[in-house]
């Protein structure tokens, strides 16, 4: 006889949840100072994709000790940062229905060395892993 094991978990509302959001990234990247780099982040969700409710957040954790900084937010439309070190440097390069949450950083600087965190929520599927990309900005290729 075949035995199938399925694990279930209940969230705070008691809703049965089979699986959460799964995020996929390249893990680590290298970019030459002054060039553009695409931070690839794709996702899978156990719920149907609804472009009106999907939210995407990118944050940056510097290599040196420092506070996390918001890089980009998407909710109905792209919201690039209006202040901070990424102002006028971020372009949306994703496709919600294609399950792509990627962004482009224009003209990377050495201060952009660090970890970029991609988080996707697709209600009611709001739990799951985050994606991390460690970016290393180098002098030459």
Automatic annotation (TrEMBL):
GO biological process: cell-cell adhesion
Keyword Membrane set for record: yes
PROSITE patterns attached to this UniProt entry: IG_LIKE
Main localization of the protein described in the UniProt heading: membrane
Pfam families according to UniProt: V-set
Domain named Ig-like: residues: 19-139
Highest taxon above the source species: Eukaryota
Subcellular location per the Swiss-Prot or TrEMBL entry: Membrane
UniProtKB keywords: Disulfide bond, Glycoprotein, Immunoglobulin domain, Membrane, Signal, Transmembrane, Transmembrane helix
Topology with respect to the bilayer: Single-pass type I membrane protein
Any one annotated GO CC term: plasma membrane
PANTHER family noted in UniProt: MYELIN P0 RELATED, MYELIN PROTEIN ZERO-LIKE PROTEIN 2
Family: Belongs to the myelin P0 protein family.
Protein name, per record: Myelin protein zero like 2
């Amino acid at each position: 006889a075949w035995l199938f094991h399925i694990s279930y978990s209940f969230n705070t509302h008691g809703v049965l949840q089979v699986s959460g959001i799964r995020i996929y990234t390249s893990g680590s990247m290298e970019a030459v100072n002054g060039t553009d780099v695409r931070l690839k982040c794709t996702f899978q969700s156990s719920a149907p994709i609804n472009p009106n409710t999907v939210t995407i957040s990118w944050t940056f954790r510097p290599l040196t000790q420092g506070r996390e900084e918001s890089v980009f937010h998407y909710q109905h439309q792209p919201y690039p940062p209006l202040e901070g070190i990424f102002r006028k440097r971020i372009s949306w390069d994703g496709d919600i229905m294609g399950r792509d949450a990627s962004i482009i950083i224009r003209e990377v600087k050495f201060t952009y060395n660090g970890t970029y965190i991609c988080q996707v929520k697709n209600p009611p599927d709001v739990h799951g892993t985050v994606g991390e990309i460690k970016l290393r900005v180098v002098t030459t290729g």
